[in-house]
Design brief:
With 182 residues, the protein is mainly alpha-helical. It is built from five helices and no strands. The protein has a single domain, classed as Four Helix Bundle (Hemerythrin (Met), subunit A), CATH 1.20.120. It is elongated, with a radius of gyration of 19 Å.
């Protein structure tokens, strides 16, 4: 079981490295001559792909924990899906942090999407820690807190995705409205 978890972690880290390399390969100084200053940054699709893939993986982990408990080895599948989801969401958050610092020249954007993303970052770290700790502690309250933390994490991710879509639509609408009329 430990071997498969290490395999999932290694594959996730390799994919993170590939996506991070692709995202950072673009030089933000090339955008200085652009006519539109409110365009979406080039690494944006990588952020979206990683966060969506992570959200789907986390949802699969939650589904496994909720509906597949009667099957043997369900906990292994739950751990693999959850760990993959955590790594992908964290990779997406790191790409977002890179985009904000490199293209917007600020450490944090004061948007609802960013605030929700910061809360997802906290929950995406705490929830797996609680999941690991629940097996080391016989206190059933840890198990309950882990379950509720997982539910809150998934809801926060969904709200963050909705806020992100709204933010992107606002950026695109502004970009369309600022285009010169010929």
């Amino acid at each position: 079981m430990q071997k498969s978890m290490i395999c999932v972690l290694v594959i996730s880290l390799i994919s993170f490295g590939i996506f991070a390399g692709m995202a950072s390969a673009h030089d933000p100084s090339e955008e200085a001559d652009s006519a539109h200053t409110h365009q979406l940054p080039p690494p944006w699709p990588y952020h979206v792909i990683m966060v969506l893939a992570g959200a789907i993986s986390l949802a699969g982990g939650a589904f496994t924990a909720r509906y597949l408990k009667k099957r043997t080895r369900w906990i292994e599948l739950h751990k693999k899906l959850a760990l993959s989801g955590v790594v992908l969401v964290l990779a997406g958050i790191f790409v977002a942090a890179y985009m904000v610092s490199a293209y917007m020249e600020t450490p944090f954007v004061r948007e609802m999407h960013a605030y929700l993303g910061a809360s997802v970052f906290i929950f995406i770290i705490v929830t797996p820690m609680l999941g690991i700790f629940q097996f080391r502690s016989k206190d059933m309250r840890i198990h309950t807190i882990h379950r509720w933390s997982g539910r809150i994490t998934i809801m926060l991710i969904l709200l963050t995705i909705i806020a992100g879509i709204q933010m992107v639509l606002t950026v695109l609408a502004y970009d369309v409205m600022s285009m010169p009329i010929k």
